[in-house]
Each structure stands twice: as structure tokens, then as C-alpha cells.
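Much of the work behind modern protein science is quiet bookkeeping, done one molecule at a time. Below is the pair of lines this work produces for a single protein:

***
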Amino acid sequence: MPSTETRDALLDAAQEFAQTLGYNAFSFRDLSKRVGVKTSSIHYWFPTKGDLGREVMRRYHERFIAVLSTIDRRRWNARRKLLAFAELFRAALSKGDRMCLCGMLASEFATLPSGVQAEVKSFFAAAERWLAGVMWAGRNSGELEFEGGPEAAARVFFSSLEGAMMAARAFGDEERLVSAGKWLVDAVSK
């Protein structure tokens, strides 16, 4: 019986492949070679690639929400929270040229199994809810100013970071992402 360490190593490798190459660019054979196990061991934990993808996304989502909770516990002002959110994108890119997992999967959305699609949508919704809460609190405290509702501001902020991350990767220039994040925060700050 495979160990839970093997399961975690498979999830880590699958996440790295998905963030650097894309979901459709790796196979169980690639995972087998990377982790050093037979493909039958992978099928023990994840009968299909869709099962694997759903679990990678679920874990990624869970970890991301935990980071956002940590940011909330620090009781930073809205501006600092938005800067910390943008920093999460830079940190991913600087870790082996990785993209946001959900951004990568969204680019392949039409070809993903339905369970993985659902997890991607759930991630985006949760991240936007958190951002909308920050936008709402920042507007109420007089710290942030923007047109429209907090939900629309959150969508624009999040989508802009995803796009800036893609451009930064394409140009091999992390500063494109960093400056975009700072510009976005400055644009809504009073």
C-alpha cells in the first residue's frame, strides 16, 4: 500500500507540473518518473487524472484560504492587505516560474474534467469574496476609493493580477507583476 508521503509527493509534483506546464501537458507517466513510483501507485490514490486534478485544486484552494486568514489575523489596513495579496502572485512566480494554479487551469478550462472546473470556479469565487471584503472595509474606513461596488473592484483587481502574472512570465520580468500590483493598490488608495 502506498504511503501518505507518496500521495503528498504526487500532489506536489502534479501541482508543479500544472503551474509550470499546464494540466494537459503532463501525464501519470511523468508523475511516475518524477516521484519514482509505478503508475499503479498513482492510480491507487487517484483513479483518474480528473481525481488528481480535483484534489490538487482542493488542496491549493485550502492553503490559499489559510494564507488569507493569516493576513486577516494580522489586522492590517486594507492597503496592506491588498499589497499582501499581490505579493502572493509574485512569490509563486519567483518559485520556479510558477503561475497561479487557477490561472493556468482557467486557460485550459474547456478541456478540464467537470470536477476540476468546479474547483477552479470555487477558488476564483472565494478569492474574489475575500478581496470584496477588503474593498468594502477599505471604502468604509475611508482608506480606499473606487467606482462601482466592492465585488466589481475585486474582480478587476484579481483579474488584473492574473494578467500581469502572465505578461511577467512571457517577458521573463517579475517587475512587470510587482509594478502592476503596486499600481492597482495605488489606484484604489486615497
Notes: DSSP finds nine helices and no strands in the chain. The mean pLDDT is 95.
